[in-house]
């Protein structure tokens, strides 16, 4: 099994799950030496073979995949960090496309794509990039494929843990009841992705929306659960949704006037924030729910053990010292 995006949040879990299931896992990393010196990261990639590879370069991918023998399952966990247009089309589209081309040329049997539930209603650049690649994958007749669109990761709805633990309020948008979600744990999502290539799972040739076992959770309910997990009384602050429009429109106006790419990217970042403040990330059909770990169980766990810091997870994330 070959994993592209092996050092990412879900990629690391996919590597662990592949190793657990007995696969010979090849982890594609940008810098093997740098990755090997990171003990925390290496603990997640333990049992796999690290190979330096630049997924934005098709020759780099071909030079690696042509030498490793038959590929039973290729799992693509590539995703841009920022979501801005340049990053999205370089990673979500081009790097993913390169990986598919190389897998096809080197006779991979199955290709599993980690996509995103949010592409169902696309008005952001990274969503367009992901959809462009999804279409390319579906048109590929040299291998079987699965496209998995998870609703949200536990980590993406846990960013205010440290803020709440420090005594600050939980910030939500609107009345806190605008959106609902049922996020899925990284371990169970990884399990689902690894098993997509198994013939008896019925996941081949399908686009699969996937959420966790929870009932619909509003942002307000998530806040209440966080406070319960850390043993504090709820302390909520409500931010009006129109703030997004003021900020986005101001940035876009300045970008249009100045031609500044930095301002254009800032406006897009604002649109990304607004999207997740107003759109549901929720599956309701029984076959679109997977796993047993609930968000409350996750909150209780990280309230005690802490969580890995990632400034890209949420604009409200705080680093635990």
SSE blueprint:
Layout: E1 2-4, H1 9-20, E2 26-29, H2 32-36, H3 39-45, E3 49-52, H4 58-65, E4 73-76, H5 85-105, E5 110-114, H6 125-138, E6 144-150, H7 161-165, E7 170-173, E8 180-181, H8 186-194, E9 206-210, E10 217-218, H9 219-230, E11 236-239, H10 242-258, H11 261-278, H12 295-305
Parallel strand pairs: 1-2, 1-4, 2-3, 4-5, 5-6, 6-9, 7-11
Antiparallel strand pairs: 8-10
Pfam families: NAD_binding_10 (PF13460)
Organism: Triparma columacea
Catalytic activity: protochlorophyllide a + NADP(+) = 3,8-divinyl protochlorophyllide a + NADPH + H(+)
Tell me what you see in this structure.
This protein is of the alpha/beta class and 321 residues long. The model is unreliable at 314-321 (pLDDT under 50). α1 packs across α8 and α4 (58-65) runs parallel beside α5. The chain has helices spanning 9-20, 32-36, 39-45, 58-65, 85-105, 125-138, 161-165, 186-194, 219-230, 242-258, 261-278, 295-305; strands spanning 2-4, 26-29, 49-52, 73-76, 110-114, 144-150, 170-173, 180-181, 206-210, 217-218, 236-239.
Sum up the structure in keywords.
single chain, Rossmann fold, seven-stranded parallel sheet, 12 helices, alpha/beta, disordered C terminus, 14% strand, 321 residues
Produce a short descriptive summary:
The chain is 43% helix and 14% strand. It is built from twelve helices and eleven strands.
Secondary-structure-derived class: alpha/beta
The overall pLDDT, averaged over residues, is 93
CATH superfamily of the domain at 2-154 and 182-214 and 289-294: NAD(P)-binding Rossmann-like Domain
**Low-pLDDT stretches:** 314-321
**DSSP summary, beta strand count:** 11
Helix content: 40-55%
CATH level-3 fold name of the domain at 2-154 and 182-214 and 289-294: Rossmann fold
| H/E series | EHEHHEHEHEHEHEEHEEHEHHH
Instruction: State the name of the first-level CATH class of the domain at 2-154 and 182-214 and 289-294.
Output: Alpha Beta
The spatial strand order of the largest sheet comes to 3-2-1-4-5-6-9
């Amino acid at each position: 099994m070959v994993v592209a995006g092996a050092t990412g949040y879900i990629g690391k879990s996919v590597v662990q799950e592949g190793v657990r299931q007995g696969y010979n896992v090849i982890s594609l990393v940008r810098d093997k030496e740098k990755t090997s010196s990171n003990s925390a990261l290496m603990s997640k990639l333990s049992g796999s073979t690290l190979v330096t590879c630049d997924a934005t370069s098709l020759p780099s991918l071909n030079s690696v995949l042509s030498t490793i023998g038959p590929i039973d399952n290729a799992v693509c966990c590539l995703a841009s960090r920022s979501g801005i247009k340049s990053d999205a089309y370089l990673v979500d589209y081009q790097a993913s496309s390169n990986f598919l081309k190389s897998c096809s040329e080197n006779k991979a049997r199955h290709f599993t794509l980690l996509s995103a539930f949010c592409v169902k209603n696309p008005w952001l650049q990274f969503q367009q990039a992901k959809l462009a690649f999804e279409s390319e994958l579906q048109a590929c007749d040299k291998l079987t494929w699965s496209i998995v669109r998870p609703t949200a990761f536990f980590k993406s709805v846990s960013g205010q843990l440290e803020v709440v633990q420090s005594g600050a309020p939980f910030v939500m948008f609107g009345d806190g009841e605008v959106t609902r979600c049922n996020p899925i744990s990284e371990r169970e999502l990884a399990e689902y992705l690894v098993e997509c290539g198994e013939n008896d799972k019925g996941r081949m040739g399908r686009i699969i929306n996937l959420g966790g076992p929870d009932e619909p959770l509003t942002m307000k309910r998530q806040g209440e659960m966080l406070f319960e997990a850390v043993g504090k009384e709820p302390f909520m602050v409500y931010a009006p949704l129109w703030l997004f429009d003021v900020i986005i429109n101001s940035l876009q106006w300045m970008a249009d006037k100045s031609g500044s790419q930095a301002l254009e990217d800032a406006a897009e970042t604002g649109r990304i924030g607004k999207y997740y403040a107003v759109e549901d990330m929720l599956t309701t059909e029984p076959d679109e729910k997977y796993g047993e770990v609930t968000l409350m169980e996750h909150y209780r766990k990280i309230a005690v053990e802490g969580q890995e810091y990632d400034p890209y997870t949420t604009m409200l994330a705080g680093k635990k010292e």
